[in-house]
């Protein structure tokens, strides 16, 4: 049994104010999407996108939307549902930015 008082080796620990947009929509597939899209200063401009039905979260930018099957895999969607989510996300995700 491990010692509950053992020291932790923190690699990072910070707090910041974020903005979260909650969106619900239904596409042609009649699948209901309930999403939380969180904007933060982390992740090079990408956003945290959480599916509130299944609790799955991904760090996404528009570059990720171009990866075939990526959204379908992360959020357990069929091709039509993935296409609907992709269409929405292209409207709300900004371009990633990179720093030196």
Low-pLDDT ranges:
none
Number of helices: 3
Q: Averaged pLDDT, please?
A: 90
Q: In percent, how much strand structure appears in the residues?
A: 25-35%
Largest sheet: 4 strands, antiparallel
Overall morphology:
elongated
Q: Helix fraction? A: 10-25%
The chain-level structural class is alpha+beta
Order of strands across the biggest sheet? 1-2-3-4
Task: Report the span from N to C terminus.
Answer: 43 Å
Count all strands and give the number: 4
The radius of gyration computed from the alpha-carbon positions, rounded to a whole number of angstroms, is 16 Å
Question: Can you write the helix and strand succession as a string?
Answer: EEEEHHH
How would you describe what is shown here?
With 100 residues, the chain is an alpha+beta fold. Helix content is 24%, strand content 25%. The longest helix is centred in the last third of the chain and has 14 residues, at 79-92.
Protein topology:
Layout: E1 19-26, E2 32-39, E3 47-51, E4 57-60, H1 62-65, H2 70-75, H3 79-92
Antiparallel strand pairs: 1-2, 2-3, 3-4
Compact description:
Helix content is 24%, strand content 25%. The chain has 100 residues and is α+β, with helices and mostly antiparallel strands.
């Amino acid at each position: 049994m491990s010692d509950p008082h053992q020291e932790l080796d923190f690699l990072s620990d910070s707090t910041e104010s974020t903005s979260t947009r909650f969106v619900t929509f239904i596409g042609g597939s009649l699948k209901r999407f309930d999403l939380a899209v969180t904007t933060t200063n982390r992740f090079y401009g990408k956003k945290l996108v959480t599916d509130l039905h299944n609790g799955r979260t991904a760090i996404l930018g528009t570059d990720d939307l171009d990866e075939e099957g990526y959204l379908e895999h992360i959020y357990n969607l069929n091709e039509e549902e993935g296409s609907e989510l992709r269409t929405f996300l292209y409207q709300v995700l900004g371009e990633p930015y990179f720093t030196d």
